[in-house]
Amino acid sequence: MRFDIDSRDFVERAVAPGRPAVIGSDRILEWQEFRRAVGRWVAEARGAGVGPDVPVVIYGHKEAEFPVAMVGCLSLGAPFVPVDLIYPEERLQRIAAIIRAPLIYRTAQQAFHKLGHKPESMHEKGLAYVMFTSGSTGEPKGVQIGREGVTGLVEWMRDCFELGTAPVFMNQAPFSFDLSMYEVFGFLGLGGTLLLNSREQVADADGYQARLREHGTTAWVSTPSFAHQQLLDKRFDGARLPSLTTFLFCGETLPSKLVRRLRERFPAARVLNTYGPTEATVATTWAFIDDAVLDAHDPLPVGYAKPGSIVRVDEAGEIVILGPHVMRGYLNSPQLNQEKLFTQQGLRGFRTGDVGEMGEDGLLFCRGRRDDQIKLNGYRIELQEVDTALQKLPGVLRSAVVALHRPDGSVARLVAYIVGSPGVRDRLSGWKGLLAKSIPQYMIPSELLETGDLQVSANGKIDRKALEKAYLEQTRGH
Questions:
Q1: Which pLDDT belongs to residue 137?
Q2: Element containing residue 214 per DSSP (H, E)
Q3: DSSP designation for 247
Q4: C-alpha angle with apex 181: 54 to 153, nearest 5 degrees?
Q5: Are 453 and 417 in contact (CB under 8 A)?
Q6: In the prediction, which pLDDT does 477 show?
Q7: What is the dihedral of CA 60, 61, 64, 65, to 10 degrees?
Q8: Residue partners of 448: CB distance under 8 A and separation at least 6
């Protein structure tokens, strides 16, 4: 069995009857059970006023009920808004208010909670989901992804990724991180299995590996950082995980050293590198990284444009994406949409803000960012949003969060500089806890440093590179 995005219904297939659809952190649902659970969810949602184009916020972690709710929304034609428990309650309520959702569905309780909004259709019709990302204004911004983008994602994975029949996807990325949509729509469209792994399960190294082995995981989907963490355990190899035949990466720069280590540990597995922003339905380019690619390129390429899309690098060096998988726009952000979106050759286009270089054969290389957006362990963070949260702390007058980079250019962690009123240190003894009320843990800096002033560049903006350099020089001096 599989789920067809276009017809919004389940489709019977003869492959692997009785195979689990979802292996949650709490329970297992075979495909027929999954179908019945979705039917029950749909009936309850309808009774609560959910219909086509009415958004539903889904809040939880790795319970089997999370994909039940997502597919229930797809069945109803209602866009789902996935929010993981890493987001504090305050941020959850802000997201619900921005999108004017009438309901939050809490997966751990399997219960709808009504909000103050009437069940009204969104202005943009035919959306599959709305993914909220970090925003430079201090407010999360909603990326509106149409069902046509999801259909294209499934076709791309089916035709190009060589995942085999009924793949078993390892999922650990939060559902509020669009990387996880690979696994969600992959298992639905290909009729495979979604193996959900909670943060607690991943932290138990022995139990986690046993879980992957027990359920015959075939497709690993993660950021490079997460794979690097697993490689610290010498038992993470193909001998113990013989069914694991594909490593699929997105969300960060893929280091060549990591690929070489993976190919040593898993000699029979393929490594697939992909690239693309949340605004383009998970990813847009792809390349299998074999020994020939490793020998020819360092840094590694992010690949070639997916079928039906166009990728180019403009005169200013910015990567531009065109295709039906490009978002329908940011929610309630006409000025930002005007800046970032355009139409050409009958296709929606998006200016990514990423700096790139294109080979003559169309092979794309990503060289970083043009602005203050960074990736930390795969999470996209607007540094300005962290600045805004810091400036709400008692006694803070000005602030600047700084990304500390590793030699390969990836971000290791964040530190924060503040200019404060007298006695600010005493007032900020619990600063991490205060920040955790408004932003998720992955955005919280590891250190808070007081300074008399913040360095600025020639154009009057905070000079984060100079602050990073000063921090590194100061720590080396100690």
A1: 66
A2: helix 205-214
A3: E
A4: 95
A5: no
A6: 64
A7: 10
A8: 415, 416, 418, 428, 431
Give pLDDT < 50 ranges for the chain.
Answer: none
Token code pair at residue 147: 């069902």
**435 Cβ contact partners less than 8 Å away, ≥ 6 residues apart:** 389, 390, 393, 443, 444
Cβ neighbours for 89, distance < 8 A, ≥ 6 positions apart: none
Give me the residue label for tokens 């994406």.
321
Give per-residue burial for 39-48: e unless 16+ CB within 10 Å, then b. eebbeebeeb
Give yes or no: residues 31 and 76 share one domain.
yes
- Whether the CB-CB separation of 275 and 300 falls below 8 Å is answered with no
Host domain of residue 40 = 2-365
Contact in structure between 246 and 218 (CB atoms under 8 Å): yes
Distance CA 83, CA 475 (A): 37
Task: Say which residues have a Cβ less than 8 Å from residue 240's Cβ, sequence separation at least 6.
Answer: 209, 213
The structure tokens listed for 168 are 């078993």
Which residues, in sequence order, are CB contacts of 236 under 8 Å at separation 6+?
A: 209, 230, 265
Phi-psi region of 180 (alpha: psi -120 to 50; beta: other; left: phi over 0): alpha
- Domain closes at, from 314, 330, 365: 365
Give the global pTM.
0.86
Tell me: do 54 and 166 sit in the same domain: yes
Residue 379 maps to which CATH number? 3.30.300.30
Residue 299 near residue 256 (C-beta atoms within 8 A): yes
- Give the model's pLDDT for residue 199: 95
Q: Give the total number of structural domains in the chain.
A: 2
The span from the CA of 55 to the CA of 81, in Å, is 7
Residue 400 β-bridge partners: 417
Same domain for 391 and 274: no
Domain boundary among 365, 396, 416: 365
Say whether both 422 and 350 belong to one domain. no
Q: List helix spans (H) across 13-86.
A: 31-47, 65-76
CATH number at residue 291: 3.40.50.12780
